[in-house]
Amino acid sequence: MTVEPGDEIAVEYVGRFEDGTVFGTSKYEIAIEHDLADEREADPDSYGPLTFVVGDGQVIEGLDEAVRGMAVGESDTVRVPPEAAYGEVREDRIREYDAETFESMVGESPEVGLHVHAENGLHGDVVAVREDTVEVDFNHELAGRTLTFEIEVVDPPSV
């Protein structure tokens, strides 16, 4: 039986950037090996197969499409371009704020790399701090990147 839209499946995965750097995984051992988790602090039980319903928009489009037609136990390596992952970097999601306004909104002094949560639910990272302004990038951290996933369907599709 092959995976079809509407099936609930589980997938083990390793996600890599084009240079081979691992950015995410469902496997504890790989997370430790690639410094994605601290062996002393990470809970091995927090890792495990990614479960989702195919075609319900629960995962990025490229991954959703890649599992269609696969069988339980089947593995594949798929390349997912930005438009089928987290989209291209959008300039309209990079915003500039007056430094004083930023500090009063966030409650912290701006510094490059600071992660902020906006009232509208967006998350962003401070990417530049100038004398009077602060630039915050609200694009997804993986926007604009081509991703490669090593995937294996590990649970049978629902009937």
Automatic annotation (TrEMBL):
PANTHER family: FKBP-TYPE PEPTIDYL-PROLYL CIS-TRANS ISOMERASE SLYD. It catalyses: [protein]-peptidylproline (omega=180) = [protein]-peptidylproline (omega=0). Gene3D superfamilies: 3.10.50.40. GO terms for molecular function: peptidyl-prolyl cis-trans isomerase activity. It comes from Halobellus clavatus. Belongs to the FKBP-type PPIase family. One of its GO terms (cellular component) is cytoplasm. This is Peptidyl-prolyl cis-trans isomerase.
